[in-house]
Amino acid sequence: MIKNLQQIAEWAGARLEAADPEAGSLVITSVSTDTRTLKPGSLFVPLTGETFDGHDYIGQAVANGAAASFWQDGREIPAGAPPLLVADDPLAALQRLARAYRRELGLKVVGITGSNGKTTTKDLTASALSAAFSVHKTPGNLNNHIGLPITLLQIEEGTDVAIIEMGMSGRGEIALLTSIAEPNVAIITNIGESHLLQLGSREEIARAKTEILSGLAPGGYFIYNGDEPLIEQVLPEMPQPQGMTTLRFGAGRENDLYAAEIQQESDGSRFRINASGAPEFRIPLIGRHNVINALAAYAAARYLGVSDEQVRQGFASAAITGMRIERKIAASGAVILNDAYNASPTSTKAALALLAEAVGQGPSRKIAVLGDMLELGSREAEFHAEVGHAAAEAGVDRLYVYGPLSVSLAEAAKAGLSEESVLYYTDKGKLIEALRADVRSGDVVLIKASRGMRLEDAAQALLAT
Q1: Domain ranges in the chain?
Q2: Domain 326-464 has CATH 3.90.190.20
Q3: Which of 102, 233, 366, 421 has its CA 20 to 30 A from that of 49?
Q4: φ/ψ bin of 376: left (φ > 0), alpha (ψ from -120 to 50), beta (otherwise)
C-alpha cells in the first residue's frame, strides 16, 4: 500500500493531528502492529490487550522508522509524537482502512474458511490461479481480525486476485472478516470438531462458518463441501447475496465436482475429475483429503477463467505452507510425515487413512505418533477414543500416544491392536527417546497433534537422528 496520510485518515475514519501542516501529504508504504517489523515510511497500529498497550511503545515505533501512528481518541498525546491518526479504536480503524483499500484495488477476492484444510486449499487455489493472474495470498495463517486487515494492506496495486484465509473460534468472527474482505468467491472446506469447546455443537460450527456468505459480493460464487450435510442444513438461516450461485465438491459422486482415479505416490497424488475433457492433475501432497481440497481450488480457478491446462500447471508446482503433512526422509532412511501443525478428529482420521496408503522405502512399518487434540469440549474423551479405533482400523504396526487427553485414544486402540504395539507417554522427552531408538530405515512415521502439543519436536528429532 502506498498512500498519503490524508487519504488513509479518510478511509480509516480518523482525524489527522500533526504539528506539520503538510503532514497529510506524507507517503505511507506499509502498516504494522509490531514495532519490530516497522521500517521507514510505516504506519504503526498500537493495539491494546489484557496485558499490553501498544500506545506505550510509540517511542520505539518512531525509533524503528514509523512515519505516523494510529492513536486512540481521549489519550494524552506524548511529546515528540509523530503525525497521529486519532480514532475511536485503532483496531477498528485498521479494519475500516483495509476494507476501503480492498475496494479501491478492484480485484477479485477468494475467501476460504473451514475447520480443516483451509490453508492447504488457500495454497492450492493460489497456485492454480497464478498460471493466469497476479495473485496475493494470506501469508502463513494471518487469518484473524488483525491478520486479515494486514494481509489486505500488503496487496500491491495491479494484483488480480487475493486468496484470503478466514479463521475463527466463535460466532460473529467470520461475519466480521468477510465484511472486510468482501469476497467474490467463498469456499467452505468442511465442518469439523475444532472449537466445540467454544461453540458446543457441530451445528453451531456450521453456522459460524457459513457467516462467510454475509459478506459475499452480489452474484458471488459459493463453493462448499457437499459431503457435509450440516452446511445445507443451516444454509437457509444465513444471509445470502442476491444472485449467488453454488457448487458442491467432495468425495461423493452426488456432488457437482468429485475426484476419480486417485493414485497415491510417494510425494504426491494424481487424480482426474468428473468434468468432461479435464486432464489428469497432480498435486505435491499425499492423501485423499488433499485431493478433495484441490477440487475446491479447481472450482474457484475455473470460475475465474483459468483453463484446465493452466490449473494443471499450477497444481504441479504448488508451494505448500509448512507442517501440513510434510514428507521428509530422515537420516535413518525412515519416511517422516510431519502433520504437527494442528489436529482434530476429522483431520487425524484422514491422516491415518493416508498412513495406511503411504509408500515407504522398501519393506516398511507404519508408525503413528499421535498427541492430544485440544478444544473439543465435553466430548473430548469420546473423540479421542474414535481416533484410537481409527488407528486400529488403519492397521498401524506401532502407535505412540502422548498427552493427558490421549489416554482414551490409547485404550481404544488396544481393542484392535496388540497391547505391546500401543505405547503411551506423558513425558515428551521419553517419547522422543523411544522413537529414536525404534524407528529405522523403511518405516513410515506419521506425527500429528494439536499445535499446543508441539509434536514437531519429535519430527525434528527423528530427522536429525
Answers
A1: 3-88, 106-316, 326-464
A2: yes
A3: 102
A4: alpha
> How far is 414 from 376, CA to CA, in rounded Å?
22
Q: Which three three-digit cell numbers place residue 248?
A: 458442491
**CATH number, domain 3-88, options 3.40.1390.10, 1.10.10.10, 3.40.390.10, 3.40.50.300:** 3.40.1390.10
Distances (CA, A) of 414 to 7, 255, 411, 418, 462: 64, 37, 5, 6, 25
Per-residue model confidence as pLDDT tens digits over 1-22: 899 999 999 999 999 999 999 9
Classify residue 31 as exposed, middle or buried by CB count within 10 Å of its CB (0-12, 13-18, 19+): buried
* HSE value, Cβ hemisphere, 13 Å, CA-based, for 331: 7
Give dist(CA 272, CA 280) in Å, integer.
5
Report which residue type is found at 81: A
pLDDT, position 359 = 57
Residues linked to residue 422 through DSSP beta bridges, in sequence order? 399
Chain-centre distance for alpha carbon 144: 10
422-425, strands of its sheet edge to edge:
326-329, 335-339, 444-448, 366-371, 398-402, 422-425
Determine the pLDDT at residue 363: 57
Q: Are strands 161-165 and 108-113 parallel, antiparallel or unpaired?
A: parallel
pLDDT of the residue at 195: 77
pTM: 0.83
Among 176, 147, 159, 145, which residue's Cα sits nearest to residue 37?
Answer: 147
Class of 106-316 in CATH = alpha beta
Question: Which cell is 22 given?
Answer: 503538510
- What tens digit of pLDDT does each residue of 197-214 get? 788 899 999 999 999 999
Smallest Cα–Cα separation from 357: which of 325, 385, 314, 380? 325
User: Which of helix, strand or coil describes residue 264?
Assistant: strand
Amino acid symbol at 365: R
Across 130-152, b (16+ Cβ under 10 Å) vs e yields: bbbbebbbbeebbbbbebbbbbb
